[in-house]
Design brief:
Elements lengths: L8 H6 L9 H16 L8 H12 L4 H13 L9 H16 L4 H14 L3 H14 L4 H14 L2 H11 L12 H12 L3 H14 L4 H13 L3 H10 L1 H4 L3 H17 L3 H19 L2 H16 L7 H9 L9 H13 L3 H16 L5 H21 L3 H8 L13 H17 L3 H17 L4 H14 L1
Helix pairs in contact: 2-3, 2-4, 4-5, 4-6, 4-8, 5-6, 6-7, 7-8, 8-9, 9-10, 10-11, 10-12, 11-12, 12-13, 12-15, 13-15, 15-16, 15-17, 16-17, 17-18, 17-19, 17-23, 18-19, 19-20, 19-21, 20-21, 21-22, 22-23, 23-24, 24-25
């Protein structure tokens, strides 16, 4: 990416997305940040996203959309909570103050409003505001991407798909970042089980932009959800050089690759990816997506009976500082996996009690509102399972199985909880739970035929209970 290729003030005006700054440098830096966000790639020739954020603040300290994209990106990264992080809370406040003191466009005012709502955990309302922007400005990629991420955190699969579908006719091939819409739309399609269409759209995206890591990721999801393990392995390996440069998503794509190995019972190959890529990248970046992938991988391997040794304790060094964050329930559940795996009862209890406290007066924080009905029972179920109280784990998890989607993440990520319920049912002393476990495996086989993992669990259930 060359700095000269980014859009200046006039270019944004020509696209009917004017920015309230007179600084061409600030306009171009805004575009540079947006481009790296969409491509999941820190461009070191530009100083990466962080370097561009520093530069934009110097170029025009009062540029409202500069504050929106900088603060918005920090918020959607879910790395820290404005409830606890005074600097982040001040950054949100500063954006609001600047918006109120300047003569900016209605679109820019809505952007500030959405970021402020998101900062309070009001993800649904924030999405409504981003969608308001897109009604009048369907080519506003920042509104589209922020909404896409927020829908993902809510498990709002159909809105995530439709949000992109609505704007597609307004985008033309000559527009910057056009091809990346394919990956976004494909992801919404696969999360609503339109796998054939999702695959077609993702491959269209890759035909336009071979190094589009998000389209690669969509293809990986399709193969995962269909249990087409060999296709998944071949595809990830053949495209590795295309996607591994997208540093923000590379670890997650390696995670998908490792899931294929776990499915095939090739645990050493999965651990090799964990050690050489997933954990290594997670330790270096501290990024939340990298962290939850590491948590999930170890938990899946342990459910499969693999000894992960000291890896839990190493990972606890990274997840421990986030115990009190409570930004999303999805993150909380993954942190809990680590404290349980590392036998840190104090950290596990602290996370649960913190969530229980926030659930008492959630305000308009959507995640805290869900804590009482979903987050807390799921935490308790994991704790019971960890203590060998399998029937109790089933009693807590089973009623939630059709509501787990609300914790956010993808079907592939949440499948861990389907597996946990099956394992708990099989290990329970309750004979009704044994029947339930077999029924769940029949269901699983119906939607994901020829899965080696399902076959393995079915054989295990027969060996245990006949």
């Amino acid at each position: 990416m060359s700095a000269s290729s980014f859009r200046d003030c006039q270019a944004w005006k020509d696209e009917a997305l004017p920015l309230s700054t007179s600084s061409n440098e600030a306009s171009k830096l805004y575009d540079a940040i947006l481009t790296q966000y969409v491509k999941w790639r820190n461009d070191e020739t530009l100083g990466g996203i962080e370097g561009c954020i520093s530069a934009i603040q110097t170029a025009d300290p009062n540029f409202v959309m500069g504050h929106v994209i900088s603060t918005g990106l920090e918020l959607v990264a879910t790395m820290s909570s404005p409830r606890l992080d005074e600097r982040l809370a001040s950054a949100v406040k500063r954006a609001v103050e600047l918006a109120n003191s300047q003569n900016i466009s209605p679109r820019e005012k809505l952007h500030v409003k959405a970021v402020e709502l998101f900062s309070r955990g009001n993800f649904p309302k924030a999405c409504e505001v981003w969608e308001d922007i897109l009604l009048d400005h369907p080519t506003d990629m920042l509104a589209l991407k922020f909404a896409h991420d927020a829908y993902f955190y809510m498990g709002a699969q159909t809105p995530m798909r439709d949000s992109v579908a609505r704007v597609l006719p307004h985008w033309k091939p000559h527009m910057p970042l056009f091809s990346y819409l394919k990956g976004q739309y494909s992801f919404g399609l696969l999360e609503t089980r339109f796998y054939d269409q999702a695959l077609k759209v993702a491959l269209e995206g890759l035909a336009l932009t071979p190094d589009d890591a998000w389209s690669v990721h969509s293809v990986a999801h399709v193969y995962e959800m269909r249990a087409e393990v060999d296709k998944g392995l071949d595809f990830m390996e053949s495209r590795e050089k295309d996607w591994q440069g997208s540093d923000i998503l590379a670890s997650h794509n390696y995670w998908h690759w490792a899931l294929c190995f776990i499915e095939r019972e090739e645990y050493e190959a999965a651990l090799q990816i964990y050690d050489s890529q997933v954990f290594k990248r997670c330790k270096a970046s501290g990024a939340m997506l990298d962290i939850v992938d590491a948590c999930s991988m170890l938990y899946r391997l342990e459910m499969e009976g693999v000894c992960v040794k000291d890896r839990w304790r190493e990972l606890l060094q990274i997840t421990g500082p986030h115990t009190d964050d409570h930004v999303t329930l999805f993150n909380d559940l993954h942190f809990l996996m680590v404290s349980l795996g590392a036998n840190e009862a104090g950290a596990s209890q602290r996370l649960l009690e913190g969530l229980q406290e926030l659930a008492k007066e959630p305000g308009d924080n959507q995640q805290h509102q869900l804590a009482k009905s979903i987050g807390i029972p799921m935490c308790k179920a994991m704790m019971e399972y960890n203590q060998g109280n399998y029937s109790r784990a089933v009693a807590l998890l089973y009623p939630l199985r059709y509501h787990v989607v609300d914790i956010g993440g993808s079907d592939a990520q949440r499948d861990l909880f389907n597996q946990l319920l099956i394992h708990a049912a099989m290990k329970s002393e309750n004979k009704q739970h044994h029947k339930l476990g077999r029924c769940l495996l029949v269901e699983r086989d119906a939607v994901r035929p020829n899965s080696p993992l399902t076959r393995r669990l079915t054989q295990k259930a027969l060996a245990l209970h006949g």
